[in-house]
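Write out a record, fold above all:
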Amino acid sequence: MRQFEFKMLSIVIPVYNEELYLEELVSKVVSQSLPGGLDRELILVNDASQDATWGVMQTLPRKFPEAKFHIINKTVNEGKGAALRDGFTRIRGDLVIIQDADLEYDPADYPKLLQPILDGKADVVYGSRFIGEPHRVMYYWHQLANNILTMLSNMLTNLNLTDMEVCYKVFTREVIDQIKIKSPRFGVEPEITAKIARMRINGKRLRVYETGISYAGRTYEEGKKIGWKDAVSAIFQIIRFRFTD
């Protein structure tokens, strides 16, 4: 299959209170081989962490000199959406992937997430935790809420995703340059999805692919942050961005 010409992958990593996991995550990102001869840059956004995350983040360029880093330190905690918005302003790559800092998602999945775009089949690729790959068995009510949010999003966007709330989303630079994030917190997931569904490039809808990924979810004791209030907010954002830009 033909490999389209992409030179660099920008990996945007919003970070909040991840002093225990950040260096390990970055090690996995840096060591992961990429298809198509892609170079990579890491854009880390510290969202005013209350632990030693910022100190750890400052040591990473020295510990991983083979990688290109952009590190941003926010002094006010605004949420994942705001961190991504700030990170997107720094990207230089032809492709962009969102990576959480908590080790729930494995960078070993990068090649299969990137391949549909490299093959010229897709403009956007979503991972999915629910289509056959290994995953840690976690909270029933979380999965039910995720299913409901994905179904509601699908109804209003006319997409047929299985996991709208997934972290792993890959975009071409042409797509990401047209997404202006407004949701400061976890409502960014339905916002991005709604905007992708409405976007046209050269008069055509975006080609959206989905691929199975592994998932090692955390408990609240292990640092999981998303809760029921975020689910309620997501419902509001799904409706809001279906009818507004």
In short: Strands lie at 8-15, 39-47, 68-74, 95-98, 124-128, 169-172, 200-201, 204-205, 208-212.
